[in-house]
Write a structure and sequence with these properties.
CATH superfamily: M75 peptidase, HXXE motif
Radius of gyration: 22 Å
Strand order of the largest sheet: 1-2
Number of helices: 20
Shape: globular
Organism: Tannerella sp. oral taxon BU063 isolate Cell 6/7/9
Pfam families: Peptidase_M75
Helix content: 55-70%
Structural class: mainly alpha
Keywords: Signal
Strand content: under 5%
Largest sheet: 2 strands, antiparallel
Number of domains: 1
Subcellular location: Cell envelope
CATH architecture: Up-down Bundle
Number of strands: 2
Order of helices and strands: HHHHHHHHHEEHHHHHHHHHHH
Distance between the termini: 32 Å
CATH class: Mainly Alpha
InterPro entries: Imelysin-like, Imelysin-like_IrpA, Imelysin_sf
Length: 418
């Protein structure tokens, strides 16, 4: 998670639109100026993008985090009654659901420029490294444990408002249900926590207490993913809308959904003055932003030695998979939808192939090379990123992703001049 503000990103985008902001006058002009053929194509690309990339991804994420919460809640309640009643198969199912939700979130990071940043959702649910020392202190605090184990909605509200982002979201749950790249065992949950941060203060933390914490955090994670879904999609499920309204989470931009705001580009009230700005935002504030983060922060901090502990998903050892999913989010944004719902004819890549085939070919080739480099890291390096932060294969992957990042910057600049 990179704590970039949408405002600063869009200032960068705006600087690239050297001619475009003269068109801001459209917002005060009662006579709509006719779109060029290219702009009409861009409007169709944008519709395909929000319908089959953004909204489908957030729909899946909302459903998966809801399922994760339900499964953790059931496991917690069962474990509290009788620790021996919880089966390994049930724990494995929780882990499987977590992995699906985690993948969906990582595949959403090419559009963090929207509600995820505006409402602080990204840092709230995806900050790392986990503050394990803070977690040990929290789970030995009787008052906090009582609050986390209280009434369902009160427990979620307490976690959301009091734990702090270093103890919330995916990585707190990951700590409870994974260790050393494997699903946590029932036997480990039946014993006291043996992580060194806990043993150093002689903390006697039980599996029941860990599951109580993870369940409250999962409830907050679900709610924030509902917020993302509702903010983008005016047709999100009523139950999700009702929950977001109940806990008073903001869920609109300029008084409308993020989809309506983006698809209303050039019209009064939209945050987008031109269709060129929409395309450039998708590429620069979305795709290039996450590409840069993967190359220079997620990989760069540990690989360079700047921060060897800055490891994403260390307990499940899925860092390389997270990075790969981030590039899939770029791929989905470029090619007109998620796998199975893609329409490449109405995509950024198709537009580029039509008007600048050479640039499109390089972008396409470099995306494939970056994905392949991360797949090589997954298959060839045992122990994941945790055990291989200085491996040459990691360096090669970083270079490939940096090249892709350059391509995305150039593509954004090219779109700004159409």
């Amino acid at each position: 998670m990179k704590k970039y503000l949408r405002t600063s990103l869009l200032l960068t985008v705006g600087a690239m639109l050297t001619w475009g902001f003269s068109s801001c006058e459209k917002n005060n002009d009662p006579i709509e100026k006719e779109l060029t053929e290219k702009q009409k194509e861009m409007s169709q690309i944008a519709k395909q993008y929000v319908d089959n990339t953004v909204n489908l991804t957030y729909k899946n994420l909302a459903a998966e985090t809801s399922e994760l919460y339900d499964k953790l809640k059931a496991a917690k309640e069962k474990f509290l009654k009788d620790p021996k009643s919880l089966t390994q198969a049930e724990v494995d199912e929780i882990c499987k659901t977590f992995i699906k939700a985690r993948s969906s979130y990582e595949q959403s990071e090419a559009f963090l420029f929207g509600a995820a940043t505006d409402f602080g959702v990204d840092p709230h649910i995806d900050t790392w490294p986990l503050d394990v020392d803070g977690l040990a202190a929290a789970l030995t605090n009787k008052y906090q444990l009582e609050k986390l184990g209280g009434d369902e909605n009160d427990a979620i509200a307490y976690a959301a408002g009091k734990l702090g982002q270093e103890l919330l979201g995916f990585h707190g749950i990951e700590f409870v249900i994974f260790r050393n790249g494997k699903n946590r065992t029932v036997a480990a949950l039946q014993a006291n926590e043996d992580n060194e941060a806990f043993t150093a203060i002689k903390a006697q933390v039980t599996g029941a207490e860990e599951l109580t914490y993870a369940t409250a955090v999962a409830g907050d994670l679900r709610d924030r993913c509902y917020q993302l879904e509702v903010a983008w999609n005016a047709n999100a499920p009523k139950a999700h809308k009702d929950r977001v309204e109940e806990i008073e989470l903001p869920s609109s931009r300029n008084g409308k959904s993020y989809t309506d705001d983006l698809l209303g580009a050039t019209k009064a009230g939209s945050g987008y003055a031109t269709w060129e700005e929409v395309m450039t935002t998708i590429l620069k504030a979305g795709c290039e932003n996450i590409c840069d983060e993967v190359a220079n922060t997620k990989i760069g901090n540990p690989y360079s030695g700047k921060d060897k502990n800055y490891i994403e998903s260390p307990y499940s050892q899925r860092s390389f998979i997270d990075f790969h999913d981030n590039l899939i989010s770029i791929q989905n944004s470029l090619y007109g939808g998620v796998d199975g719902k893609r329409n490449e004819a109405a995509s950024i890549m198709a537009f580029m192939k039509k008007y600048d085939a050479a640039q499109a070919s390089k972008l396409e080739s470099d995306l494939k090379a970056a994905l392949k480099a991360l797949e090589d890291c997954q298959t060839k390096l045992k122990g994941g990123f945790v055990s291989n932060i200085s491996n040459p294969l990691v360096g090669e992957a970083q270079k490939k992703i940096q090249t892709l990042d350059e391509d995305l910057n150039k593509a954004a600049e090219w779109f700004s001049k159409q």
